[in-house]
Predict the structure.
Amino acid sequence: MAYIASDSRYQATLFPATVEEYVSTDAPVRIIDAFVDSLDFVALGFERARSANTGRPGYDPRDLLKLYVYGYLNEVRSSRRLERECHRNLEVLWLMRRLAPDHKTIADFRRDNGLAIVGACRAFVLFCRDQGLFSARLIAIDGSKFRAAASTLRIMDRKRIIAEAEQLDAQAAKYLADLDNADLGEPGDEGNATMKALAELEKRRAELGRMHAHLEQDGRNLVVDGEPDARPMGFGRGGKPPSYNVQTAVDADTGFIIHHVVTDEVNDQRMLYPVAKATRDLLECSELMVIADTGYSSGNDAAACEADGIIACVPVRPVFNGRGDGTLYERTEFLYDAEKDQYICPIGRPLARKGGISRNSYNYKSRDCSGCDLKSRCTQSEVRWVTRHKHEDALERMRSRIEADPTLMRQRRCSVEHPFGTIKRMMGGRFLTRGIRGTQAEMALSVLAYNMIRGMSLRMSTG
Ligand code: SF4
């Protein structure tokens, strides 16, 4: 039996007559092209948004953004690979109209236009909102750790920095002594090599000095050599790897990422209000309902959300009684009397507020525990103390919202975890660039690519 016949490579009519014919009418690359062309590059702050009248012409930032968005959409993120795609990928040939910037130009564009790229990502969110692709009825907030472009071996503490600095100083002293002993009247190859080695030691010594200053300035215990914005967090082989904490606010109905931010916060506890507020500001709505997991439980953020018209639904982290063997009464056994600002213990005796605020909480103390039959189950001290967060009322209201609708947590899980899974797959789970500005640009490109996929599938499903 014969095989299906192919065309000859030397046949003049092998390929379509125009590049336009290579790209199908519904190809995502056409959406990238149309969307980027619709952006106001001057308002977004892209460099070279207006062409210069003098000097050597540069590449149009619109073309470079198109190339990057196409790359992130197709899991091609490195500038060298994107350069290659410009020569061999038919869709890229169509998109770039045979422009083929070198990898340095491509990388420089991403490095120099971080904020503008974040702005382009936000512009796509607003475009989709205006098209009615999502309603922002309920916003699910979540965070995930993304590996920074640095190895766990590059995590330094004060001890390690000082030890390396001492080693370098000893090495430098030895080189200087060698130079003193050598005949320097006629500097030879050996002398030049020593001077070069000394210059390298000096450079490294300055880096160590910067790292030490960084630790002192930020009050941290650890710094990542070569990537000082990242922090050891999350879990990995051989300890906590240098990472960033990426926060997202996702439309619970559609899985659309409305807002995202790359942070160096090691956990999510202080992120509820900033992320919710940024989402509300972006959408310019007066009210917003947000949901998050227990990691976001914070009295300060619960109160800040309430004050700003944000309805936060977060399970409140339980407060455990750390005293004794773990069997002593929890605070939940005590009733709070708001009118008298006091707690009532299980046998009906009052605990009055003592002293001022300490670590965001007030302390309440029982006046007299003598003769109490329950004392062995309540306290090992003479009297019992109970603490109350200064925004306990806001926490209580947040707790009651969660209890009133048990489906909220399921909606959160179903909506917010999928985007992270997809983006981590698209990014290979780690950043390529260093510094928080570079990672913000990378994440904005990933989110823009993810939202484009989401937008296309939503458009198809709604006809
Ligand atoms: S030990 Fe004190 S606070 Fe606890 S139940 Fe008895 S009287 Fe109340």
The first helix runs from residue 28 to 38. Residues 325 and 380 are 10 Å apart (CA to CA). The longest strand covers residues 242-251.
